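FORM 7B: Structural annotation worksheet

SECTION A. Query
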Amino acid sequence: MKKKTTTASAGKKGTWLTYRPDIKVFDCTIRDGGLVNNSQFTDEFVAAVYQALVDAGVDYMEIGYKGDRKIYSPSEYGPWKHCQEDDIRRIVGENQTGLKLSAMADAERTNYHEDFLPKEKSVLDMIRVATYIHQIPTALDMIKAAHDKGYETSLNLMSVSTVHDHELEEGLEILARSEVDVLYIVDSFGALYSEEIQDLTRKFMSFAEGAGKKVGIHTHNNQQLAYANTIEALILGASYLDSTIAGLGRGAGNCATELLLGFLKNPKFHLRPILKCIQEHFLPLREKIFWGYDIPLLITGQLNIHPRSAIAFIEGSHNTDFVGFYDSVVEEE
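SECTION B. Predicted structure
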């Protein structure tokens, strides 16, 4: 039954065995990876990721956040937390390539009236607004501001695994009437299983397609399902697929770009530049910072809670007491 439903749904745009021209690979390495090290990547590292994505034929690069400097002090956070124009251009120049550039703006944590420049003054192509369900009024204003200034836009609905069905449907109905181009399913806690991803993708598609919008998927790897869940959403019609090189991202990390490129059938994608970038830049980075699947992150994923407690535990001095960690978070729940 599952195979029959999946094939029928995918048949609108082609099956997973064929080339899907609507698919966009959206690499978030510098943005999501910046949550691991306060966005303190060197220019050399960011430039290496940029060039690898260009050479690999990836569609979008999210180069960081548009974070309010009053909230995220430049003395504590690197330039990719703020993505000022001079910093971006120092890496990409005028970006005369096929790779589009994006920055993420968190609802209520971005001075969007001032920090969203008119598109003609920016090398960015897209602004992605990240929001929790209760912040949708603010997010809608941010979407409109970015749209009116000439940007492509997405709305990334965070922690969707905690949203009640009636709230989700009401939110999607409102968002479908907005100026946004892409509606994103975001498994912030790495808590969702394939059946839940299928249900959510169908729900998002039902609101998006009639409004002429696309659906995207952003996954975390707490239960080692980020790649599999991304493919599940793709098969059912999601076309914007988030990933990071070597899975670099907060906590357990994300769907790996190299896995995704190896799966997709589009001949424009090339795996070798990503592997070269991992070999030369990510292996040395692993000696300095930690990311990826680990038992405490598995536990928070299974409990459908924010990974902050697991991240703090991993960074602590008793980080192998998995039973103690489990008992402590279960008691809190």
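SECTION C. Observations
Confidence is low (pLDDT under 50) at residues 1-11. Strands lie at 24-27, 60-65, 100-106, 126-131, 152-157, 182-186, 214-218, 240-243.

SECTION D. Sign-off
Analyst initials: ____
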